Automatic annotation (TrEMBL):
CDD domains per the UniProt record, alphabetical: nucleoside_deaminase
Name of the featured protein: Nucleoside deaminase
GO molecular function, one term: catalytic activity
Phylogenetic classification of the source organism: Bacteria, Bacillati, Actinomycetota, Actinomycetes, Streptosporangiales
Matching PROSITE patterns: CYT_DCMP_DEAMINASES_2 (PS51747)
Record domain CMP/dCMP-type deaminase: where: 3-114
Top-level division of the source organism's lineage: Bacteria
Species name: Nonomuraea montanisoli
InterPro entries per the UniProt record, alphabetical: CMP_dCMP_dom, Cytidine_deaminase-like
Gene3D superfamilies: Cytidine Deaminase, domain 2 (3.40.140.10)
Length: 141
């Protein structure tokens, strides 16, 4: 890892500390263009914003998808204080961002907090294939 990359990761960690100081979970992220310029920064605002999806990585993925061409997004790196969760990883993939550099891994984060107690939802399906395929068929050609 280069000294510039470490500097960007340290900034993400600072943003995480700022989120915590402001009453939100401690996570922060930034996007850096191919020339090394910081494009945008975000903090977690799930508590103060009343939005369970307000993770910084998701906000940045949405920004990249809205503001950057796919080629520019592919040349852009996300630096984030923690490995993106499943929700954010999906959004990052859809945004075409080219690279994610994280400080804490998901496993390291799990070791710093109590075990999760909520079970996931029951997923039931597939069902009604003949009807459900109608609005989809032909869309992706
Ligand atoms: Zn997330």
């Amino acid at each position: 890892m280069t000294s510039d990359e470490e500097r960007f990761l340290r900034r993400a960690i600072e943003l995480a500390a700022e989120a915590r100081e402001g009453g939100d979970p401690p996570f922060g992220s930034l996007l850096v263009g191919p020339d090394g310029a910081v494009l945008v920064e975000e903090r977690n605002t799930t508590v103060t914003g009343g939005d369970i999806t307000a993770h910084p990585e998701l906000k940045l993925a949405r920004w990249a998808a809205r503001e950057l061409s796919p080629d520019a997004a592919a040349a852009t790196s996300m630096y984030t204080s923690c490995q993106p969760c499943g929700m954010c990883a999906g959004a990052i993939e859809r945004s075409f961002l080219g690279r994610v550099v994280f400080a804490l891994s998901g496993e390291q984060l799990a070791g710093l907090k109590p075990p999760a107690t909520a079970a996931g939802p029951l997923l039931e399906g597939p069902a009604l294939y003949a009807e459900a395929r109608v609005p989809v068929e032909g869309y992706y050609v």
